[in-house]
Design a protein that fits this description.
By secondary structure, the protein is mostly beta strands. The chain is 8% helix and 67% strand. The chain has an 8-stranded antiparallel β-barrel with strand order 1-2-3-4-5-6-7-10. The two termini are 38 Å apart. The relative contact order is 0.17.
């Protein structure tokens, strides 16, 4: 199938959807669905700066997020709801130099919860823009492996933010949605498990805040409205 034919079929489907579907976001409407995210980056450095002893390095990062959600429109075009799900993060750093090699892997499995409020603006009967404010939290464990040594940490995080998105109604009650971009604040704290060599109460804390428009903020979802 050539590109022109594929484009023609895609545009025809959009045209058909525009005349066969419509959104009904009145007060009392319920929604059920979820969001799915998969993000991966790989950095392969075959050389480094003159001041570094490392000659070659590979950095891998991936994130998988599954968040089922449910909501209720308490006003026309404004819904509130909650989502409960799962987040997996994986990082690997592999470095080599004349006298040493480092291979460090870190994996975390976290339970995630989120409450949200979302305002919808109908552009057409099948195309809706939304702005969403949310507060989230996550908790679980993270394991780091360096050579033959393994270390575990407790992880607790929370955040608040706002993000824009768009919904395409493919039928009267089913919408496909995506969002990209985030303005907000996120904090994550780690505490060591079974590390007697460390002072009691030591923690590592990471704080992120500001505006991000990177692909790392891209989410996809599907909602059923009834």
């Amino acid at each position: 199938m050539n590109k022109s034919l594929s484009l023609t079929i895609f545009l025809s489907l959009l045209f058909l959807i525009s005349f066969t579907s419509h959104a009904q976001f009145s007060k009392g409407t319920k929604q059920a669905g979820g969001n799915l995210k998969f993000y991966r980056t790989v950095v392969n450095n075959e050389y480094t700066t003159p001041v570094s002893f490392v000659q070659q390095s590979i950095n891998e990062n991936s994130e998988i997020k599954i968040l089922p959600r449910a909501g209720l429109f308490i006003y026309d075009n404004f819904s509130v709801g909650v989502s409960v799900g799962f987040v997996n993060n994986y990082t690997r750093t592999k470095s080599s130099a004349p006298q040493f090699n480092i291979d460090q892997r870190t994996a975390s499995n976290l339970a995630a919860t989120q409450v949200f409020g979302r305002y919808h603006v109908n552009i057409t009967d099948h195309l809706i823009l939304f702005g969403e404010g949310f507060a989230n939290s996550n908790f679980g464990k993270e394991k780091t492996t360096v050579v033959a040594n393994e270390y575990e940490e407790k992880v607790v995080g929370f955040g608040v933010g706002v993000k824009p998105g768009i919904i395409l109604m493919i039928s009267e009650k089913i919408g496909l949605e995506t969002s990209i971009g985030l303005l907000g604040y996120q904090q994550e704290t780690r505490k060591p498990i079974d590390r007697p060599e460390l002072p009691i109460g030591n923690t590592n804390t990471q704080r992120d805040y500001g505006l991000s428009l990177s692909l790392a903020t891209l989410d996809f979802g599907m909602q059923y409205y009834f």
